[in-house]
Amino acid sequence: MVSNFVWGVLLVLLFSTVCSRSALVRPREVDVRAGEPRNTVQAFQRYIRLVYQPQAEDVIYNDQEASWAYNINITGYNEELMIAASEETALFDQETAQYVRSSFSNIDFSSNMTLERLYDKLVLLGDANLNSTDFSELQEVQTRMQRIYNTAKICRNPSIHADDVLSKCPKDQQLSLEPDVSQILATSRNETLLRHVWKSWRDATGKKMHGDYQRYVELKNKASSMDGYADTGAAWRSTYVDTYTNYTDQMFLDEAEAIWQQLKPLYEQLHAYIRHKLKEQYPTVKALSNTNSPIPAHLLGNMWAQTWGNLQEFTRPHPEKQSLDVTEAMVEQNYTADTMFRKSDDFFATLGLIRMPQKFWDKSMIERPADNSTKVVCHASAWDFYNRQDFRIKQCTEVTMEDFLTVHHEMGHVEYYLQYKDLEVPFRRGANDGFHEAVGDTLALSVQTPAHLKSLGLLMADFDINDPDLERNSLYSTALDKIAFLPFGYLMDKYRYDIFSGKIKPEQYNSKWWEHLVEYQGICSPVKRSDSDFDPGSKYHIPAGVPYMRYFVSFILQFQFHKAMCQEAGYTGPLHRCDVSAPELGDGGKRAGALLAKTLKMGSSQPWTQAISAITNGNSSRMDAGPLLEFFTPMQQWLTQKNAELGITPGWSKEPECSEETAFQAWLNLHNNESSVVKSAEMFATWAYQTNITKANELAMLEASNVAAAFAKRKTEEMLGLFPNPDEITDPLLRRAYEKLSKLGDAALSPEDFARLGAIRTEMEQVYSVAKVCNDTSIGIDMERCPQHQQMALSPEITDILHSSRDPEELLYYWSAWRDATGKKMRSNFTEYVGLKNKAAVADGYKDNAEAWRAPYVEPSYNYTDADFLEDADRLWNQMKPLYQQLHAYIRYKLWELYGNKTVPSLNGPIPAHLLSNQWAQTWVGLLDFTEPFPGKPQLDVTQEMQKQGWTARRMFNVSEEFFTDLGLIGMPEEFWKISMIEKPSDREVVCHASAEDFYDGIHFGIKQCTAVTMSDLLTVHHEMGHVE
């Protein structure tokens, strides 16, 4: 790939070198011939040849040297020199552009389109448009982001965060991207380790440059606008725009999109097949359980999931046959980085192309320095030093087939440099950005054919290149590199175009990035992401500011070039088998090389459409995906057939995250839907029983309860099996849901014990709900002997008596008889109930049921424990106790005044419970008439007034609802009024205890209350309606 610096320079010497201001062009230096006007074509040509060209070559050479020095030895000193060199070059560019505009703007170039193109390139300054302050800041921002990227390390130990690597991670566990992290991603099948390094790399890089990238965008847009572009995206695309052929920016965007749509079906077939094979390899990864899901990004063998070649081991069509990956053979044959580069050079020479000059071998960095203390930019790149002699490659080469092909790719750049080195400086670049990237890859398509690899001795002698299974493996291997890359190559700049245009805001950088990844690549994040992350920055080209659409374009062009060269060489077979260097083609390889060389020599001096026309011998002048699809036709046919056999449907859902947390959220959503149905059925059955106590309703309720318990138990076991590690669920709300669902409550019991508990509870509730006391004290609770009209229920009869009677004997009778009618009859049941409740609580991990009941008050995330709650409850009671004691003493005295010593024997002792106007002495409001501090004054108890005004239960509920709506709260829905039981029916037994119910269907909510027209019940109505609200 071309260095970032070079592309900047080629936007008219954008980045460059130290140059004294005395060397800068001055107008008077142009008048080579005395008296000749400057505004002529001839003067412009002489200026370029005699003044601009030698100065520009000198400036760029020095600047490239400064940049090279920094890239192969990252130090603060070298960084300062590099920035200073760029600033001097920017000044050179500015003065050059100013001079060219002032001196040659009136020239009529209509007779010489090439000179007009040259003029246009010189007056566009790019970043050099910025004033010195802004330019320096841009350099500093970019350098800072690149330094973060180039020096990043992560720790193999998953417990050590990327921020703590230098301080806490042992040296032998510190990992660089190359080769350490890339090797793990390529070879490990440990999903947990893959997820760790994937996330850590993003924490160590992109997350640390979010703010810098925002400033970078602002400054780049400012510079681009000064060149007349709408934004930097438009400036980047200008390499494809050609006014001379009326090829517009929108035409390029439309053509790129049309090509992607043409290629998408092939990618979708490959994606579907890989997803299936990954599911087989990682059966416990929940994100792969859905046949329509995107693929977790960390499983695809590459940090950015842009190529999938490292998955061949377990995905190739014929695993019993040899793989085309010749890495092992290279290692066995003692290949070195030098061997790989020499082999590549030989291949170029067989096509009659220019060999690498001696300076290339002397000055290139083709291996990571042995001195580990020297930090380098390992990202492979090719460099043109613009003196027509010095060309280099920087690559931390590993002995792998992948790097062998990368060597050819980078050497393709150098070949391009060598071919156009004598052109004017602004023309020393590809016809468009994609051309430069396509050259080496075009030749690599021949190199990676089985026939060529066999000719190199990298495939066994008995390797049958005509074996259809081996050929399918070979083509599949190429597809994992070429087809897998296409959406990534396309989306990288689509994403940045939207950033530069302002469509994507800074706070959306990461969320929109993942929207693009899932939309085009069909991949998802294996961990939770947020907009505090900046995952794009984990890819070199983002902090380095290198446009990426060139790679998508190059992947189209390389197949066009390959087909054209194969045809020129006289090859007539299937395109995927073509090796233009094959001996059987005779001098066809050299003819193909000459065709390529003719195109490369043009540089960017002619429109790129003419360059395509040149290499295709006039058969095409546009990008064409046809040759790529032709190359992969056998593979597309096989994938389509195989996926159909497997029952696989290509495509994916658009969920950008597939983390454990996201999977749990999806599971929880499904659980909510299922649980609502089960819970609703249980609530309706319970409601039916409580509002009409019959044996049939009792049995229906118990059955619904058993079904709900079995469901809860099954779903909790399912949840714990699918998500055994709650620490991976970091969202507070989801974590709370997980913790709540992990506790089964009564459903933790065996089905038999649960059924028994339900029966006991129902028996006790039924005893309580139907209990009556006879008004005849001689009969007591023997209801068979008590006349119907003398049978007193708790509400309203007994409650009214306890509230209003001042006869201590009567009060004692009803107080005692109620306990005989209820509690005494359920004592044995309650003992069994306690045992079963404790058994369920222990099964849920609690000490006993009391601890389980207190669990809602415990907050682990805030370190609030059960002991804290108990301590707080005691503290609060002790705070309120003095007030209660004063009230208690006062009430005791007033009762003594009313009843005397016989009933209230002591002014210092406890109060007899039956005297306090409430069955459980929990409220004493019934004593108001003789205990109020100021007798004769109006009472706050408005019960009598309510009864006088004819209030009803419905009116009490309406008034309560009006109170809620006056506060802007939600009124009771129509279904509430239909289902609620707000008065005690006269025709059946019911559970009168007031309660509000949610029926879990989002529609039905109800209150069950045997309402009496009293102030106390009015307040209870508000209380219950609060639950419904």
From TrEMBL:
Binds 2 Zn(2+) ions per subunit. GO terms for molecular function: carboxypeptidase activity; metal ion binding; metallopeptidase activity; peptidyl-dipeptidase activity. Pfam families: Peptidase_M2 (PF01401). Zn(2+) 1 binds at residues 409, 413, 437. GO terms for cellular component: plasma membrane. Disulfide bonds join 155-169, 378-396, 566-578, 992-1010. GO terms for biological process: proteolysis. Its cofactor is Zn(2+). Its EC number is 3.4.-.-. The active site is at residues 410, 541, 1024. InterPro entries: Peptidase_M2. Chloride binds at residues 240, 550. Glycans are attached at residues 73, 112. Belongs to the peptidase M2 family. This is Angiotensin-converting enzyme. It comes from Ramazzottius varieornatus (Water bear). The gene is RvY_00195.
